[in-house]
Design brief:
- This protein has 409 residues and is an alpha/beta fold.
- The protein folds into two domains: 30-273, Alpha-Beta Barrel (TIM Barrel); 277-395, Lyase, Ornithine Decarboxylase, Chain A, domain 1 (Beta Barrel).
- The protein has helices at 11-21, 30-43, 61-70, 79-87, 104-113, 122-132, 170-180, 198-212, 240-257, 270-273, 306-310, 397-401, and strands at 25-29, 49-54, 73-76, 95-97, 116-119, 138-143, 165-166, 184-188, 220-222, 263-266, 277-288, 293-297, 316-318, 326-332, 340-348, 355-358, 379-384, 387-392.
- The strands form two sheets. Strands 1, 11, 12, 13, 14, 15, 16, 17 and 18 form a nine-stranded mixed beta sheet that branches. Strands 2-3-4-5-6-8-9-10 form an eight-stranded parallel β-barrel, surrounded by five helices.
- The protein is globular.
- Residues 31-274 form the Orn/DAP/Arg decarboxylase 2 N-terminal domain.
Length: 409
Amino acid sequence: MPKTQSDVLSASTLVKVAEEFGTPVYIYHAEKIKTQYTKLKQAFAKSDTRFFYACKALTNINILRYMNSLGCGLDTVSIQEVELGLRAGFDPKNIIFTPNCVDLQEIIAAKELGVNINIDNISILEQFGNTFGGSYPICIRLNPHIMAGGNFKISTGHVDSKFGISIHQIRHIERIVKSTKLKVTGLHMHTGSEIKDVDVFLRGVEIMFEMTEHFPDLESIDLGSGFKVAYQPGDPETDIDLLGEKLTEAFNKFSAKYKRPLQLWFEPGKYLVSQCGYFVVKANVIKQTTATVFVGVNSGFNHLIRPMFYDSFHLIRNISNPQGTERIYTVVGNICETDTFGWDRKITEVREGDFLVFYNAGAYGFEMSSNFNSRLKPAEVMIKDGKPHLIRKRDTIDDLLKNQVEIAL
Ligand SMILES: *Cc1c(COP(=O)(O)O)cnc(C)c1O
């Protein structure tokens, strides 16, 4: 979402990258990531707070390496993300593993790699305790039963959610911890994505404070993420400064009462990388029907699925004709499925061959892409210090066939 000039890549910069590397292409602006990270650090400067980038939003190894260079930790949800983090150079101590519904084998693999582990169900907690006792400290993911988040699909803390162990099962957790001598050093919650209301976090942390009395070895409280960013001008955002102020106040007050020093942890994904990303496509055809003017672009939900999957709004602009007259278009993809990026959008006049940009394409953009329709995944480019670097080559037809095994027929 364009805000200030220095915060946003210009149309001409994006066009240049599109011309050099082709389209569709994801473009990431490194300095914007740094700006976001710095905002978080500053908002929480008065408390002992650490941030772990939730890398499921965007896992290109260069993005991970850049996060590491900023001093940010890493939050992972699969053993593969853990391995990517280690390859990117993260110290295992700076990696959190927060999977759900994985088997004990995957948890053991993470233990062998030495990362922080969040356990999110009673069954694994018991198995882990029985196998390792207190020899490897763990964190527990609780479900505080707070209904929050931009929509039901991305809300994870409600009563019907599969995530975390219900706070109402605390007695059961305690029994397992006691009888297996588990050492619990962290409590975790993550109530969902796109939470704009600061009070949700304050309610969450109060519940976590209440839970601390059951765990004598705590070192950290992890409030997950869910910071909302603006997707268009005027969109509400999580007020990070207010959040920092209020949470710091609550946290420091609690820490003074608590017998041990506690760290506050967060796992932002979207907040760090959403706005750094631009997805540039080409207008293939302008198709006027009786009711609608469609722009058909050389991409689809195989490359950016958020509009179709979550009904997400991504601002679309014509960077090849930024001064043109505004007209109303419906922007669709080239996939043989209903594939609409945006209905009735005011965009400056689009001509076939023009480049369009989708803003806020850094988080859950490339990462959720697929090869549906046997289309190739886009290239990724990182702009750092004003220079574009190719950080992922566009797929080729060989990538589609690479793991297929041809049998005698
Ligand atoms: C997805 C996820 C996050 C990041 O959420 P955002 O809305 O992208 O900030 C953080 N923690 C966990 C455990 C997650 O699954």
